Amino acid sequence: MPEKFPQVKPLQSKKRSLGKSFFAVGFVLFVFGVGYFYGAWNVHKVAPDRVVEQIVRNAPEFENQQIDFTLFWEVWNEVKKSYVDQPVADEKLFYGSMEGLVNSLDDPYSTFLNPEQSKAFTDDLAGNFEGIGAEIGIRSDQLVVVSPLSGSPAEKAGLRAGDFILSIDDADTVGMSLTEAVTLIRGEQGTTVVLNIFREGESAAQDISIVRDVIHVNSVDWSYDEKTGIVTIELHQFIETTESELNAALQDILLKHPRGVVLDLRNNPGGFLTTAIRVASQFLNSGVVVSERFSDGSVRKYETIGTPSLVDMPMVVLVNEGSASASEIVAGALKDHGRAKLVGKKTFGKGSVQDFQELSDGSTLKITVAKWLTPNGAAIDGEGIAPDVEVDLTKEDIDAEKDPQADKAVEILRAAMSSDN
Q1: CA 46 from centroid of its chain's CA atoms
Q2: How would you label 314-330 residue by residue, b for 16+ Cβ within 10 Å and e otherwise?
Q3: Does 311 lie in the same domain as 412?
Q4: Residues 6 or more apart whose Cβ sits within 8 Å of residue 374
Q5: Does 160 map to a domain?
Q6: Residues 403 and 318 placed together within one structural domain of the fold
Q7: Assigned domain for 167 exists
Q8: pTM for the whole structure
Q9: Domain end call among 163, 189, 216
Q10: Residue 218: its pLDDT value, please?
Q11: Do 243 and 199 share a structural domain?
């Protein structure tokens, strides 16, 4: 858990009540209309007396740790006195100091968000936001598209999972943080952002122009094939509404008496941990869904919740490079328990846990505190989960409106259903 903050005088007199806590995975999540990709994270709020509400000073709490902020104040005063473009706002320097403190960890998934950024973050988690509708992360020290959301401006413009973002409106992304990238990509409905991207397998980078829009997230879609008796459930994200959407869908699905299930998690960048556990619980009779391992070696296990809906029929899960975080939790649980075969491509590989502290001035602190493990104890961070059956989905397939991954899933299910007869 994060260390206590110094006891300091308030920067502003305005305070708000804090209380409720919840647990989430992310997204990842759909932050700032484009999305940070974070992996699993805990979210809770911090009492006002623990919040940094003014510039850090030599508080008694830190004297015991022999921390001297003299140098900090020397730099602060020099900036205030000598910087060419005066005046420099205290609040800007303060929040910049907090960002620098967290950035010094060299962990792209630990970050400090100021109140404005934090509000956009929580708005996006609700499933409605303005932007391009894509998740971004960092791979090999380079900004990368985790996945475009289904039906989003990003997807329509041709952005794909795995695309490396080289520049944003001519701003080079080398050394750029997720926060900086999101700030540049985010914008009002109707405006355009140009991303210069490099796609593996291609010889040159290309510009993709994307017109920002209001993104309304529908996290669950499903279809039923009367001929085969197979139901396909597509989960696009794990957000606040996913559980209720899935429950409503399952009520209708059960009336069809399906004989096989395809769970499509392709290009699903993640979401709330509790949602991931509840989704997995619909397909598992019992057992561990996911575990967290902390720096002291301790492990916390999360088991299935409630009564499952679809357990007595063969199942295939579709995954690809854009399946991340909560998607990997569900896919890993179903694979490890022998409940489903995975078909597609290796998943993204986001298996760290962030502690998300909501501070009383509206800022938030997100810091990596653990790694999550599949039920069999596999740590997938940076590795991903390999499918049982690897199947490519090429640009030519997409252009021809073919889906060999889904076709393979149906083939496997039909064989399993035939053997059960």
Answers
A1: 22
A2: bbbbbbbbbbbbbbbbb
A3: yes
A4: 290, 329, 332, 333, 335, 336, 380, 385
A5: yes
A6: yes
A7: yes
A8: 0.72
A9: 216
A10: 79
A11: no
What is the number of residues in the chain? 421
At residue 201, the pLDDT reads 86
Return the active site residues: 325, 336, 350
Tally of domains in the chain:
2
Q: Note whether residue 361 is domain-resident.
A: no
What is the reported pLDDT for 147?
Answer: 83
- Alpha-carbon distance values, 379 to 209, 251, 351 (Å): 37, 35, 7
Residue scoring higher pLDDT (218 or 84):
84
| pLDDT at res. 66 | 67
Q: Which of 133, 180, 157, 149 is nearest to 33 (CA)?
A: 133
Structure tokens at 315: 């199942």
Q: Which domain holds residue 167?
A: 127-216
| Dihedral angle of Cα 134, 140, 141, 147, to the nearest 10 degrees | 0
Residues 181, 245, single domain; the answer is no
Residue 33 in this model has a pLDDT that exceeds 50: no
Are 343 and 388 spatial neighbours (Cβ–Cβ below 8 Å)? Answer: yes
Taking Cα atoms as reference points, which of 343, 321, 342, 345 lies closest to residue 332? Answer: 342
Q: What is the pLDDT of residues 108-122, one digit of tens each?
A: 888 898 988 887 766
Q: How many CB atoms lie within 10 A of CB 79?
A: 13
| Same domain (yes/no): 263, 397 | yes
Say whether both 151 and 254 belong to one domain. Answer: no
Residue-level pLDDT at 65: 60
60 lies in some domain: no
Q: How far apart, in whole angstroms, are the C-alpha atoms of residue 402 and residue 308?
A: 32
Q: Are residues 315 and 409 in the same domain?
A: yes
Cβ contact 343:292 at 8 Å: no
What SS3 state is found at 130? strand
| Measured distance CA(402)–CA(316) in Å, rounded | 18
